[in-house]
Amino acid sequence: MIATFRLSDKKYYMKKLAILGASYLQVPLINKANEMGLETHVFAWEDGAVGKEMASHFYPISILNKEDILQKCKEIGIHGITTIGTDIAIPSVNYIANKLNLIGNSFEATLNSTDKYEMRKALLSKNIPCPRFSFFEVDCFKKNEDFEFPLIVKPTDRSGSRGVTKVSSFNELNKAIRKALDNSINKRVIVEEFIKGKREFSVECISYEGKIYPLVVTDKVTTGAPYFCEIEHHQPAQISDELKNKLFQLTIDSLITLGVKNGASHTEIILDENDNLFIIEVAGRMGGDFIGSHLVKLSTGFDFLMATVDIALNNFTIDKYYGIPEKLFSGVYYVIANPGKIVNINNNYKCFQEIVYCQPLCMVGDIVDMLVDRSDKRSGIMVYSSDVANPIKSPTSVLNITTV
Q1: Do residues 215 and 247 lie in contact, with contact meaning Cβ atoms separated by under 8 Å?
Q2: Which class in CATH covers the domain with range 7-102?
Q3: How confident is the model at residue 2 (pLDDT cuts 50, 70, 90)?
Q4: 132-193: what fold?
Q5: What percent of the chain is predicted at pLDDT more than 90?
C-alpha cells in the first residue's frame, strides 16, 4: 500500500521512514506515518508481520540483523528510523541512525536502556533508587550471596515479562536463572531483591535533543507473583499532584543518567509499602501494550505517535502535538483465556460505548497455554476511553474466549 499524500503534509512528501518491526504493536506507527504522507519502509520477519500490508515497502529481514538493514537503508536513502513498543529493535534503530547521521541515541544510552544490568549500574552511580542486584551468566547462585528471599530473576535484555520469575527459596533459584538465560538474547541475567509494592506505575515521556517532556503517569496491574505479566493499564493514574511530580522528577533524573536524549520513553516505577519510590526499568522507546500508541492521546490529547515520527525526522516542535482529549480517562485490558483449545470467541464490544478498540489475539481452534511469563500469550485486548476511571469491571463481559 502506498502512503496517501495530503496537501497539508507537504513537508513530509517524498520523505522515507524506516520502521523496525511489523507486529500488531507496530501497526499504529505504520498507519500514523502513512497518514502523515510518508513513504514507509518496514523491516521484520514475515511470520506474524501483520503490518506488512500497510507498509509502502516491506523487507523480510530480522530486526536484529542491523548490518543488512543498514545496507538497505543506505540504498533507500531513508530520512529517519524508529520503532515502538519493543526493546529488541532499539539497538538496531540507534546503530543505523548513528551510522547515517540521523536522530537517535548514543551507543552508551542504548546499552543503558536495553540491558538491565548496565541500567542498574548507571542508576546506582547517581544514587537513583532501584533494587539491589547481582549479575549472572551461568546458573551458579551460591548460598553465601548477600540476599534475602524472595528474589526476582530476569533476563537483562527482554521485555513483556519474558523469563521473569519470583523465587522464594534457594532450591528454586538456579532453575529460574537457567530459564532467564534461555530467554535472554545475550545470555545475561540479573537477580534482584523483591520490592513489595503497593502500587506500580509507568511514566510516559518524549525527549528531543536532551529536553525531556513528561506526558502522563500510567497505573499498572499485573498477574502478580510469580510471573508479573501485565494485564491492565489505566491513565492518568489516580494519584496526588505531589506524587505525580515526584514520579516525573525521578523519571527525568533517570533518563538524564542513562543518556536517553531523543524519542519516546517508558519508565516503570514501584511505590513500596513505606511510600518509597524505586526505578524498576527505563526503556528508551514507547510503552507497549497500547500505552503509547493509544492511551496517551486518548487521555491527554498529545499525539505521541506523530511526535515520535517527527523526532526521527528531526522535525519536532513540542507545541504542535497537543489537543483536547475527548474523555478524561483511558486504559487497556488484556483477556486471559483458560488453558485449552479455543472453541468460541464472543466479542460484545458494540454493547459498551467506552470501548474504542477490541481484538482477539487468537482464533477458534488455537491452543492456549497457561499464562506464565510471556505477555504475547494473552488472548485478547480492549482499549477504553471514558469519563470515569477503570469503567469495565469484567473484561470477559466484553470479550469472552471459551476453551475446553
Answers
A1: no
A2: alpha beta
A3: very low
A4: Dna Ligase; domain 1 (3.30.1490)
A5: 78
